[in-house]
Task: structure prediction
Amino acid sequence: MNVIDVTNLTKSFGSFTAVDHISFNVGEGELFGFLGANGAGKTTAMRMLCGLSAPTSGEARVAGFDVYKETEKIKQHIGYMSQKFSLYGDLKVWENIRLYGGIYGLSGKKLKEKTDELLHVLDLEGERNTLVDSLPLGWKQKLAFSVAIIHDPRIVFLDEPTGGVDPVTRRQFWELIYQAAERGITVFVTTHYMDEAEYCNRVSIMVDGKIEALDSPAALKASFNTDNMNDVFHALARKAKRGE
Result:
């Protein structure tokens, strides 16, 4: 069963087409990578799927809901983590958890239980009253991801979640992603780190607003006779530049 279905989705800003007639689907429980260089159109595509930006044309359904007419219903069934982690630095750790839990529809006893549970799982009980701005970057990242799935959404959208962090923290973050996937949450993640493709069930590679390839990492590497996803990306970029 697909939780995301996209057909010829397009987003233009005046004469500039940021997302150019892309089509793909994502299965329930899948860990789906949306790869491409900065400026390839990944974030623009994600914002349309999250109901944050209206498409120019094309069709898309997320969690069974139409991206044109049912954006509020989409928002109720997804989690979202932006590149900037979406946390409020001048609020305490527990205040951020309660704030986002409330935004996602949790309240009362359920919200308190989820807050305490999250502090324990993240080993942040001792930092409960710490301002988020005072936390190390890796902790902010883990907290932002955890509040994005505090309500157990069907899908979580992660926009460049590992940008600007060290390799060790990146690996730790992917462990959190795997844990979410094991809980049955579909993960849709954008990244410009080609090595992160290896963590995904399938990846879509975008070049200049278009999807140039979509398959499992193993199949893509085999088709280009390489064991390195960077080679795949550069080959696709050269092909797109030649207009093939």
Summary: The chain has a mean pLDDT of 91. Residues 167-182 form the longest helix (16 residues). The CA atoms of residues 81 and 123 lie 20 Å apart.
